[in-house]
Every structure is written in structure tokens, then in C-alpha cells.
Amino acid sequence: MGEMSLLTIVLAALAFFVVGALWYGVIFGKAWQKAAGMSDEQIQSGSMLKIFGLTFLFELLIATVLAHQFAMTGASDRAIMMISVGFAVGVMIPAIGINYLYLRKTAAHFFIDAGHFIVGMTAMGSVFALMN
After folding, report:
1. Which of 85, 102, 104, 124 is deepest in the core (most CB within 10 A)?
2. 5 phi and psi, to 5 degrees?
3. CB-CB contact of 119 with 19 (8 Å)
4. How many CB atoms lie within 10 A of CB 59?
């Protein structure tokens, strides 16, 4: 059984967070806002400290779960990437897909968010592989 590195966990979560900042900022910000049906006023009305803080905590939790998986299995760099991306494709995206069906979210909204999970988990896995 391998060790879990707190530094690697934080860096992996930070990588996912940076992807999200770019994804929902400069890359798909306006498209996501339109797909979500949110006005500028609604976007600005939320507590950014709370939203960003909880986002990072959730990403730390994801990174911790992955770190535990990698430590328990002694995963190779290739396995780390397969598990990270596989988790996005096989667990995270279907879960939001189910929720979005019931919430009547648009396909555009789903694909923007699903893309974020794939790219974010790829970034997270890359940090784990680089630090392995």
C-alpha cells in the first residue's frame, strides 16, 4: 500500500479548480450562463466566497478519494489516468445526466458541464501521475 500525499491532493484539487475557472470563465462562461438560464444579476447575486470555497472543498474530497484509490492499488501512471477519466465518464457524468433529466436542463448545459468533468478529471489525474 502506498502513501497519500497531502501536497499532491491539494495540487490535484487546484488543477481541477483552475480548469473550472477557465472553463466557466473565458471558455464557456456565456454559453453556460445561457444554457443554465441565468441572468447577469443571478450570476452576481451568489456569494462567490461560499461557491468557490465549497467547490474547492468538493474537489479536495474527490482528490482524496482518488489518492486513496491510487495508494491502495499502487496504480501506474497509465492506470491513474484511466481511473481519473473513467471516474468522470462512468460516475460523475451519468450522475449529473440523471439530475439534469429531472431538472429539465438543456443538452447544451449538460455537455458543457460534462466536458468540464472530463477535462478537470484529466487535469487532476495528470497531477497524480506527475507526482507518482
Report:
1. 124
2. -100, 120
3. yes
4. 22
